[in-house]
Automatic annotation (TrEMBL):
InterPro entries cross-referenced by the UniProt entry: AAA+_ATPase, ABC_transporter-like_ATP-bd, ABC_transpr_FbpC, ABC_transpr_MalK/UgpC-like, Mo/tungstate-bd_C_term_dom, NA-bd_OB-fold, P-loop_NTPase, Transp-assoc_OB_typ2
Superkingdom of the organism of origin: Bacteria
Organism of derivation: Maritalea mediterranea
UniProt-listed Pfam families: ABC_tran, TOBE_2
Protein name: ABC transporter ATP-binding protein
Database matches in SUPFAM superfamilies: MOP-like (SSF50331), P-loop containing nucleoside triphosphate hydrolases (SSF52540)
GO MF annotation: an example: ATP binding
UniProt entry keywords in alphabetical sequence: ATP-binding, Cell membrane, Membrane, Nucleotide-binding, Transport
Keyword Transport in annotation: yes
Gene3D superfamilies in the cross-refs: 2.40.50.100, Nucleic acid-binding proteins, P-loop containing nucleotide triphosphate hydrolases
Length: 362
């Protein structure tokens, strides 16, 4: 296990990049601590896989360094980085038994047979596949094959990091939650440094202690799942995390306040930063309610999603989503929208531009 440091890392697929737009990864400075559970989260094309390949040694960065426990490994090949990787599709030997699949990484390193047997049974117990040890891997279901692939990554106790590259892609939706829970449990038991790459917010937020959200080759926020949901540092994070995502509404800033359609909207705290740039209000649907006063709107659609209703209302041409549990309005009905002040944030050029009241008072 290792602390992983990415220092002034940039990467371009062009031989002579001319500007920021030519870089698949803009400058990245990041520390992942020994034994942590981390996720790289973002849409396709944001740079997740490029970053993972650089960490694993499959690709050398154009600029910057990668350090494992302060040792520079930037130019070391994968086999000298002491890593394990679990891919989208299970990497196992179909002709071997489950036992031999789990034992193979240890046998390949000359580990004594008794130690191999002990470790294989430990991992099999964690994965709940002990009854399968004598079965040929070819006959396993896709989810069990991926379990074995995960086990092959975890069976060694000398790896610096275990990396998961969208490992649940081929798993049936009704089985994904089981493997997500199992993977979280495994991390808590083995305490290896783990990095999980995914475009699925549910997978990232249920697995990781810290989530790195990426967009267009940049890190836009690093935080706990609660941080990312409660206080997005960038409107992209608000859009990408949550279902439905955060409402982002154009607003005017004047006299120290924010206004929508001429009506002032109470914010979480003081407006900070510069005075130039496009300004927007961000408010999650969970913190929008209906009341006797507030911003006037007309209900466009109501969706029953089981535990609550999602109400889409229009303020002129601007849609606002609200999560409502009772007293649901009808489509076409005139309503007033109220925003919970402590959850109402101002963004300038997409970046958070309000200070929480607790922070401003300290």
């Amino acid at each position: 296990m290792a602390k992983i440091t990415l220092s002034q890392l940039r990467h371009s697929y062009f031989d002579q990049p001319r500007g920021p737009e030519d870089y698949a990864l803009k400058q990245i400075d990041l520390d992942w601590h020994d034994g942590g559970a981390y996720a790289l989260l973002g849409p396709s094309g944001c740079g997740k896989s490029t970053l993972l390949n650089i960490i694993s040694g499959l690709r050398t960065p154009s600029e910057g360094r990668i350090l494992f426990d302060d040792q520079d490994v930037t130019h070391l090949p994968p086999d000298q980085r002491n890593i394990a990787q679990v891919f989208q599709f299970p990497v196992i030997y179909d002709t071997m038994s489950v036992y031999d699949n789990l034992a193979f990484p240890l046998r390949n390193r000359g580990v004594p047979a008794a130690q191999i047997d002990k470790r294989v049974h430990e991992i099999a117990q964690m994965l709940e596949v002990e009854e399968m040890l004598n079965l040929r891997a070819a006959g396993l279901s896709p989810d069990n094959k991926q379990k074995i692939s995960m086990g092959r990554g975890l069976v060694r106790d000398d790896v610096n990091v275990v990396m998961f590259d969208e490992p649940l892609t081929v798993i049936d939706p009704h089985l994904k939650w089981k493997l997500r829970s199992k993977l979280k449990e495994l991390h808590q038991r083995v305490r290896a440094t783990m990095i999980y790459v995914t475009h699925d917010q549910t997978e990232a937020l249920t697995f990781a202690d810290q989530v790195v959200v990426m967009q267009d080759g940049e890190i836009v926020q690093i935080g706990t799942p609660v941080d990312l949901f409660e206080r997005p540092a960038h409107t992209f994070v608000g859009h990408f995390i949550g279902s439905p995502g955060m409402n982002v509404l154009p607003c005017e800033v004047k006299e120290g306040g924010a206004f929508i359609a001429g009506q002032q909207v109470a914010l979480e705290g003081e407006i900070v930063g510069g005075k130039q740039g496009q300004t927007q209000i961000g408010i999650r649907p969970e913190y929008v309610s209906l009341g006797s006063d507030g911003l006037p709107a007309t209900v466009k659609k109501v969706a029953d999603v089981g535990r609550h209703y999602v109400v889409d209302a229009m303020m002129g041409e601007q849609k606002v989503s609200a999560i409502i549990k009772q007293d649901v309005p009808e489509p076409g009905q005139a309503v007033h929208l109220q925003f919970k002040p402590e959850q109402t944030r101002l963004y300038r050029d997409s970046w958070l531009a309000t200070a929480a009241r607790e922070a401003s008072a300290s």
